[in-house]
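Please, structure for the following, as tokens.
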Amino acid sequence: MVASTGIDGLDDILNGGLTPERLYLVEGTPGTGKTTLGLGFLLTGAAAGQTGLYITLAETEVELRAVADTHGWTLDPITIFEMVPADGLGGDHEQTLLHPSEVELGETVRAIMARVDEIRPARVVIDSLSELRLLAQSPVRYRRQILALKHYFSTRQCTVLVLDDKSASGGDLQLHSIAHGVISLEQTLSGFGAQRRRMHVVKMRGVRFRGGYHDFEIERGGLCVYPRLVASEHHDDGEMPFVSTGSTAFDALLGGGLVTGTATLLTGPAGVGKTTATVQCMVAALKRGDPASYFLFDERAATLKARSKALGMDLQPFIDSRQLTLRAIDPAELSPGEFAATVRAAVEQDGARMIVVDSLNAYLQSMPSEQFLILQMHELLTYLGQRGVVSMLILGMHGIMGDVRADVDLSYLADTAVQLRYFEAFGEVRQAISVIKTRTARHERMIREFRIEEAGLTFGEPLKEFRGVLTGVPTFQGEGVALLASHDAIPVGDRGDDIVT
């Protein structure tokens, strides 16, 4: 038997919820969501028929009801006990400001116990312990009072959350040792974009919880927690058949096509055709009846739909039928944990069999450092692979010719790496494609020319007469007949922005 916190993600982290009739510490600086968590905890208990008591030493009942209104809640099912009444500063009470701290602390603790004995609640929230710490003025007296409260609640069959704003310098480790469990909430600011909130379970006695940091947001209706993705918890291994990219030549280049449960990374400079190649593979999957989700970081959804339609790959019918989910994402507003949760929902709820991330460059900006990006992508790709999903990742590179570099090297995480580059031949800048590696098939090691045309990508014959491939400036030295005919291309004036990726 466990006590639900009222937050699905947090219950998942705690393997179902909290052990009843224990005292737990929820700590965090102001603005991290402690009050919202506490109110949601009591309202969840009230919905299950449990009496709830909110003891506030800092906020007024009016302020608490205002917080509840922002979430669409009513606090009528629970009891709110203000330790400082509205007339607390009247003439009859002024002398209490001069009482010795130990007397005032004792009165406060006794008032809490009396209220609990009166109501007999099953769930209690005390907000906040920083007020008791100020009254105590001594670590020894403070610890004794908290231990007395813990012992008292243990005899009253109460599940208690005590909130602390971390006002104690260096953190209050005494509370950590006394509490049955500790949940820490954090809020950070980056140089740009919205604040990021995350939590971690410091300790939880008798419960096998998921450690590490978990992103969360304060939304209307309470906290929305995104548990850290652990790929090893998701096993759905099966056959790994080939699926077509929609092009016979592209399938041959890959050694048979894409393989379910693998990740394909397409790299190349701007405008070379990475997005177009990816969309062609996705449309082929959609025509097979496989649902897909496209996560768009770099451009507007309207732009992608317009240029895909101009190339004969209209995405709107698939969007209308809900077979394709197209999500334009702002990396400044979306935390990595929320993105991972969104991808997981696309697979488990929408049944997506292909996931596209366009592009990893923008996704990189949402991560605190390159190291964390690699670890996050490793878990995400492993999870998608175990679910049998085809993953398509796009990584833009800096520069057009010569020394072309990427923000981060993720090629070793991908099962298949496809490189798209420009090359020079007879005074023209052309496009070439090659497969650097694939772990699932014997791929073609030649370089092929390709062109973006009205029907998508058109591939030429393998090209052998190249010089300077390894220098980063491949130059074609063969006969012109080996190249694609120039008149087959879409006139430049008719393309507009259709081939920009």
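The chain has 15 helices and 23 strands. Residues 242-420 form a domain with the Rossmann fold fold (CATH 3.40.50.300).
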